[in-house]
Amino acid sequence: LDPKEWATPPFKPTMKPDGPITAESRLYARSSSDDKAAIVAMLTGLDAIKAAGIRMKSKIRFVFEGEEEAGSRNLEKTMASRRDLFAADLWLMCDAPLYQTRQQSVIFGARGVTQVNITVYGPRTELHSGHYGNWAPNPAMSLARLLASMKDDTGRVLIKGFYEGIQPLTVDERALLRAVPDDPDGLLRLFGLAAPEPFAESLQEAYQRPSLNIRGISAGHVGAAATNVIPSVAVASLDMRLVTETRGDAMLEKVKAHIRSQGFYLVDSDPDDATRARYRDIVKLTTTSPTEAYRVSVTTAQSKSMIDGLSRALGTPPVVLRTSGATGPMAELAAAASAPAISVQTVNFDDNQHTDNENLRLGHLFGAVRTLAAVLTLP
Q: How far apart are CA 298 and CA 306, in angstroms?
């Protein structure tokens, strides 16, 4: 988070536009949408239920976990230590935006994620590009070639076995994806893009496969700070979104095998002089513990009950998504309590979560209060 990239101070909530507050007003602040909005909405919904004298049909327990963006490293341990507190028949998560058409959506899975940092080594120190260009290997060029070897021009990942184990979708599953009212043209206009990756087929199809994303690259300096040097290191940070058929540890091993197949020598710490003298292309790989993917069938009794309940409460069926493209600890929650997990969304899809100018559209907040109050009173 870089405050200089924000139009308003990130930790000073700012309402836009000026004037009377309406459903289209937006609150700009760090965490306004992800996740404070959901917490406020569910607790406000609970207050409304009590104020209306409505009797709940189920026992409700609220669990707020503050490490989700860091991989929920202590969640499993915490739940194992107090299984009595976390016993449940159903987990309901509210950490995601509504569908892009502003229709209420309900999601029955989430992709997992694991991160990989790749460091390619060049000379021990930066070298003058005039004196040593064309002679000293450039780690930025080596890194560029390595990254380019991982995906083809259509967006298909070329790492051997990357899509292994993923079965073709059934007729019913494809029908479920087609029923989602995607607006690809609208998204392309909003994001300033000419076309999606050809391999994507559609946004919903893309969610059903693991992905490989370059989330940052660093080598030397650029712009006014640029100098005529050969960098000493080049670094790329990647994330891989996982589906239930692809386990995080296995995917990391496939990435390592691919890097070796491209002629690189892998190390887990900065190379010493002996290693530098022996190997021309050296890569240090650091990884994070994966968050695994999760998915529950939309045809279970609890899934149907959630869809039917939301349909009655909202007066229109929700958008049903087989899985989210994003990640959350649904797998950990479901495993710890031996209960399914379902996600009901609360905020606007164009909320800029995870980046500058994060915002919350108030109309979505008001709708989330009504939706979550309805969900909390379901049998």
A: 10
For residue 343, the surrounding DSSP H or E stretch is: strand 341-344
- Quick check: 87 and 79 in contact, CB under 8 A? no
State how far the Cα of 273 lies from the Cα of 291, in Å rounded to an integer: 36
With tokens 């008001």, the residue in question is 366
Distance between CA atoms of residues 346 and 33, nearest Å: 9
- Give me the DSSP letters along 232-287: SEEEEEEEEEE-TTS-HHHHHHHHHHHHHHTTPEEESS---HHHHHH-SSEEEEEE
pTM: 0.84
* pLDDT for res 1: 60
Asked whether the beta carbons of 340 and 330 are under 8 A apart, the reply is no
List the chain residues with pLDDT less than 70: 1, 71
Task: For the chain, state the CA radius of gyration.
Answer: 24
pLDDT at residue 335 in the model: 84
Angle at 170 between CA 176 and CA 318, to 5 degrees: 15
* Beta carbons of 100 and 186 less than 8 angstroms apart: yes
Query: 31, 35, 94, 34: which is closest to 60 by C-alpha?
Result: 94
Angle between helices 301-314 and 362-376 (to 10 degrees): 130
Residue 292's closest CA among 241, 340, 354, 339? 241
Comparing CA positions, the residue from 210, 212, 211, 232 lying closest to residue 220 is: 232
Helix ranges (DSSP H) in the chain: 36-51, 75-81, 129-132, 139-148, 171-178, 184-191, 203-207, 248-261, 273-278, 301-314, 330-337, 362-376
